[in-house]
Amino acid sequence: MNEPTVGTARRADDRMVERAQADPHRPRFHFVSPAGWLNDPNGLSQWDGTFHLFYQYNPYSPVHDRIHWGHATSTDLVRWTDEPVALVPGERGPDAEGCWSGVLVDDGGTPTIVYSGRHDGRELPCVAVGSADLRTWTPVEENPVIAATPPDVDVTAFRDHCVWRQDGRWRQLVGSGIRGRGGAALLYESDDLRSWTYIGPLVVGDASVGAKGAPDWTGTMWECVDLFRLASQDAATDVLVFSAWDEGVTHHPLYWVGAYEDDAFTPHRLGRLDYGGRYFYAPQSFKDAQGRRLMFGWLQEGRPDDATVLAGWSGVMSLPRQVTLAPDGALAQEPAAEVSLLRRDGISIAPGALSAGERRDVEISGDQLDLEIDVVLAAGSSLELDVRAAGPVDDPAGERTRLVLERDSAGAVMLRLDRSRASLDPAVDATPRSGEVPAGPDGAVRLRVIVDHSALEVFANGRPLTARVYPTRPDATGIELAASSGAVTVTRLDGWHMADAWDDRPREPWPTTP
Fold it and tell me: The pTM is what?
């Protein structure tokens, strides 16, 4: 049946918002779209003191189809106001099949979006200019501003943009891949954001290195390339973030630490951006007025498509993260300080030493929590932290999501996520996640665990692990600590309930000007 239209767009299912609001798995202090589908963060910026979050959005259905750009604003990075949809695919032309990921830049005072328009099954760079309040956007007549992929380069795909001003000219990276070699970031240059000259590959990966799908495999195509510079004690360090993609499969975000000079990026070190893999995908970053490098990413779903369609929504935006350089030269990430604005009703305890096999309930519970835990692990010891727990630990009808910090006899510390008992629903993803955590000689680890219904963000000495969990039991709100082996000392445990970032008023799939 053909659906009625509103302008160039079909009408959304009015009950989709109702279903989304009622879903117990829907986060309450992470950003989510009013309903429908959300994926990549786009156009992140701070403009005249206001933070702008644009995002990939389908207001009609929680499926990835004919993508628009949603838009929200905030003055504090945690409480958001829905703004009018920024980009809508045209009836015909270069973005008729969707307005895909891109960035927002300041072109001499004119807000300007560079995005990927999709048409006839392929994506090409397009430009739209905005009004002074960033609420009205007009695609330029020159679209697509790059009419074809580079000549004589057999690309696997060509989309997503990183754009910056350098030496009086614009430079742009387009995410791509060179067939038979690996993912690539292709470099362009322009005077006016309309006419672009291809310079060449900034850097090309090697998909033959490592096992396909391994946590550090770089893929055959790089989505959402993001080049930025971080200051360190010794010198500035350049970072290239990308999301490894292969034949339609979104694998995981990675980063190169290296040196950007002239028309090349020389990689020195490859790192995993988030140990959760695809649960923190397609990240984008920006520098705010304080000089912080802030980053958002897309938390993909871990339940089947038919469940998200029934729920009326799909996709979660991460909390804002501050990215810095760690002492070991890797990237460190922590929630932006503003996240603490939502803390309520805190507790502060010092559980002390835990003997092997000892288990304790924690004096806070819920499905909207922020926990900070300082722990010292002796060699050969491990700490278990269970969240979203229901029932005794040995109850087969119980549910619990388990985080494990484990220090081996040589002193190395691993962070592990065990979701094997996180849900009684056999259809949701329960695969494990893990990664190594830097620790001092005494095995000290500072753990930050943020729970928001189905969204889980964990930070261990600056290393993040993001995931989704879907408990079925309403009483799956317990928190437990245990030492599964060796000597473990918990010197501090602070916890808070987290306030909603949204009130109870229904949100509109097509927001109007506030």
Answer: 0.96
